[in-house]
Amino acid sequence: MKTILIIGATNSGKKTILNKLRAQEDVEFQSYDCEKIVLKDQVDYLLRLSGENQLNLINERLDKEVDGIIYVVNNRAGFTDDDQGIIDLINEKNIPNVIFANKQDLKSGNIISNTMALVIPTIATKGIGINDGLTLLLEMIESRGIDQDESKGIIQEIPGGIDQGKSSYHHLRMDEHDPEICKVRFFLRQVEFENVKKRLESEGFGNITITNIKYVDKALEKREIYRTSSYTTQYPEKVELMLVTMKENIHYICQALASIKSEDIDDHLIISPVENVLRIRTREEGENAIE
User: Fold this and answer.
1) Which of 113, 142, 264, 291 could disulfide-link to 189, CB 3.0 to 4.6 Å?
2) Is pTM beyond 0.70 here?
3) What is the pLDDT of residues 39-70, one digit of tens each?
């Protein structure tokens, strides 16, 4: 049984989110109001289980069994220093977490935070974004378990490729004669760009080239009028991310993308061989020239 905490300030929408979350047989949800206190010039945070009066220090609760956290922010109020402090505490405990930027119907837009956490725009009253965010969090929890097993020397081959709603992936089978350096390309919608970029950077992949592209989608074909003339438009926008890396790192790219996979991230990686990489200034070649 997994335990997921829903934490946020009063009136951030936690109760509504709890009611909208899809029932999970192996998940227990616990909703907590969070309040700041100052004791002897030291800032701390108290948690109160919704519907009860008992207060506990946040560290005391985080030290107990918890598998993941949904942190709820009232987007109308914005992301405060207190929100940042709580997220920092959660990250120090290495607990998988996502941020729900709730009440987008009252004030839309992305919150600004100094965190690697995934930010999910939500409208709890309509159920928008709620279960997508839960799916991503469950994938992160599962991926964390895989990482822990592999760190203990347990190499698991998990059936299934990267697919929507799943965090599973194949270990890549590459021939020994394949080139050591590869170019990796993949595509996503703009809404997922920051999440993907942060996730890759957290895994050490910072040398990323970004290209805005358009693609043909017959399902989205529509007609528009411009200066009395009718035009057919069927070219929605996407973002292409490209990076050059050693072939043994492709497995880690797959793992990073699988942990945040959604329908807005394409299912395929395009992998091309690279004969060599030369750094002009230093004349370094090959692996030494790849940042």
Assistant:
1) 264
2) no
3) 878 888 999 887 777 788 898 899 988 999 99
